[in-house]
């Protein structure tokens, strides 16, 4: 199956166009990589490594402040995605209109994996989101933003575009809440046309201290806080939308 990956690049465009997948962005076999929003006056605040114990509160904060978030979730990072509380949290965020994207199954460094493993990492997470919320993800954030051409090829195969960021809160790298808030303040003061920010969903101070402040800063400058699909304009949130399933014994990590 994966010998196809190293076959003719020229075939890819035709194949994926036929499959109706080019709208998610691909150049030949390699998935498009987006780092910035394009719709003026929009900001997309995104999270990775969830769901976690603060996630429902985080959703409430966005809801109360009339803002949308994008959550790139793992399958087996802190806990198994099929645990009742994880299922419940993902449904809670999705039902409130926030976007759920893929952060792969195990938070592996995808640049160091074979095509087979990358495919498996993406597919297992897709299956989980199809079961839990009835959607097939269209957006993939590789763990630590690490990707190469093989990651791009597998992403195209799976119909997903790669999405990075142009502002890192650096909460995964030890920045203090005060430092992060200063950085958000500075960013809002510079008033760029758009911003695409990355934040750690599993960090308590990010959820309760930094994010309400950041949303407020952007709102005070007149930005609309939207999902990555909206900030890029003309994209669907998901590849496919079907119906969610009831949990059974096959829901295991
Ligand atoms: C991921 O792997 C690549 C290739 O070995 C390496 O260059 C990169 O530093 C790694 N990233 C992380 C976050 O470990
Ligand atoms: C990769 O990201 C995780 C959080 O998602 C962070 O804890 C870790 O320090 C990062 N690793 C590297 C090498 O950047
Ligand atoms: Zn991560």
UniProtKB/TrEMBL annotation:
Its main location: membrane. It comes from Sanghuangporus baumii. Its cofactor is Co(2+). Residues 41-226 form the NodB homology domain. One of its GO terms (molecular function) is hydrolase activity, acting on carbon-nitrogen (but not peptide) bonds. PROSITE patterns: NODB (PS51677). The keyword Cytoplasm does not apply. It is a lipid-anchor; GPI-anchor. Keywords: Carbohydrate metabolism, Cell membrane, Cell wall biogenesis/degradation, Glycoprotein, GPI-anchor, Hydrolase, Lipoprotein, Membrane, Metal-binding, Signal. This is Glycoside hydrolase/deacetylase. The lineage of its organism: Eukaryota, Fungi, Dikarya, Basidiomycota, Agaricomycotina. One of its GO terms (biological process) is cell wall organization. The keyword Cell wall biogenesis/degradation applies. One of its GO terms (cellular component) is side of membrane. It is found in: Cell membrane. Residues 1-19 form the signal peptide.
